[in-house]
What we know:
mainly alpha; 4 domains; two-stranded antiparallel ribbon; 6 strands; disordered N terminus
Amino acid sequence: IVNPSTSESGPSLQALSLARSLIVNPSTSETTISSILETLAHFLQPNHNPLSLHHTLSLLSDLAVHRPLLSHHVFNTVRSFSLLCKDNSTRTVTDALSVLVSIAESDQTLIPTINELSEGLFVSLCFQPCASVRHWLLLNAKRFCIRPHLLLTLLLGFTKDPYPYVRRVALDGLVGLCKPNIVVEDSALIEGCYCRAVELLSDMEDYVRFAAVRAVSEWGRLLVASNQDKSKRDWSDALFVQLCSMVRDMSVGVRVEAFDALGKIGMVSEDILSQTLSKKVLASTKEKKYPGQCSIKQCSIIHFEIPASSAAGAFVHGLEDEFYEVRRSACQSLHMLAILYADFAAEALNLLMDVLNDDSMVVRLTALETMCHMAIFDCLKVQAKHMHMFLGTIVDSSVLVRSVARRILRSTKLHNLAIFKLSVDGLLESLEMYPQDEADIFSVLFNIGRNHGNFAVSIIKEVSDEIEPSCEGKLGFDSARIAGLLVLAISAPLSHEQRICSIPPRIFSYAVTLLGRISRSLSDVMNKNTLLAYLSHCSRSTVISSAEFYFKEEEPFLPVLEGGIPNNTDSEIISPAGMQLQQITDGATGIHSQRTWELKKVATPLVDYQLEDHEEVTNSVKLILAKIEDIWHLIKNGYTAKVLNMLRL
């Protein structure tokens, strides 16, 4: 490379390849590297072959990256060359500018120098006839120090470039200027950018229309924000209708981008939204028109109206699209729009329920996520006609779909007993099919029982025969269904709806046999010791009142949000540190009255907590342990029936 046999056009490709291998090799001596740099600088001659100059500049860029100590030398060499040959090949000057910017990005001390050079050179190169150079410059505009208003003017002008890939990158550049740190105060300029993007929605090339949809979305929302009062709503509706006109585009990518853009609009008239769910033009939108495609003539903007009926059936088409990407995007778009109006949410729910039968797991999951979002904002009004489709997701083959479906039940208020019973049956069926989901299913059963105490008690009364031991004395607690019903039963006394709980106390004693499984499921609500204390208290009470589980100033035994929805996000877990079992005594005589127990909150640290030492409890525990010791040899020898009879005595 130092003494190559080259022509005047520059070094051979073989010599350049050898030079690259030496540059990237960390073992190459500094003397050799210096010789390579000197030789490459010698080859930077304007009269050399442009291809050879391209490779030479690329090697100099590699040299600056791998040998940072030489970056200033390389930068000055390339800068001198770019100033020398700026009247020659546009492609070569652009390559040199690319090398200079790359070096300056890795060495901040060179930023002022590149700023002095870049703006004027950038603008002059943009107006050269080479389309590939314009494309590269506009694509990398953010790497140069160009004043925002100058760059905006350039990008807006190049949206009319005859080459479609230049128009696309110009539109992408306009989108990049819609940033919080770039303030465009001229409303006429904002409207001009929006109108130019709208005009390109009818471009012949798919990728230009794709970029135009994004530009319309960004500049349209900026235009809405710049207007006031009624005009703000009108422009927002106009933007929404304009994007709706693109959801039936022949390009899949354009349709996806259109739905993504619709989901970002936070203010739309209810009649326009309702029109998107009906292919038939509604009377409320039949006569409405909004500013649509526009053109700029003699420094004024001329709008062509677009009818509100352009939004007809937009979401119907999206949710029925043959491509799952479009269906998924339509569901995501409804994520935010469905919480704007209650009536629209109810109509959208009918469509989303049909989507739950979609062949694509991704689409089903997205639809459920949207419904979950609606439930959080109390916009999900589930009706009996929806339950068949919804319950199918509870037993879906996808663990993600089942999980989100359970989250919806956790957050939804069920308005009648029939829907509640269907939900419980669905959860129990899922528990039998997917035992690995037990912890989450138990948690959901517990939560919906707390939120719907009256319904939970009604269900337990209907199925009490299933929970009770059979006539032969056999217990069915190994059954997943019975275990789930026990979890539902123990949640009822904690409901706001239940002042006096009519669930038999023995049900709570049955639940003690599943203490480990239940406590793992309710770890976000209470720990194992608290659960045991709660079950023990309820199993000994003749009358269970929910008032017993409220402390001073009506503080609940378990954290509950307004409306009865459990606060599962609260990291605080109720523990025995916060309560103790206190025996009620007759204050006048000091004699123990009827053995009634209540849960009382005390400020005892968890590490200092221990259960009160009651002689009766201690004796009972000793008796149980003694009996277990006596029967252990029977268990080992297989006398199970005899053991069960002894335990029931």
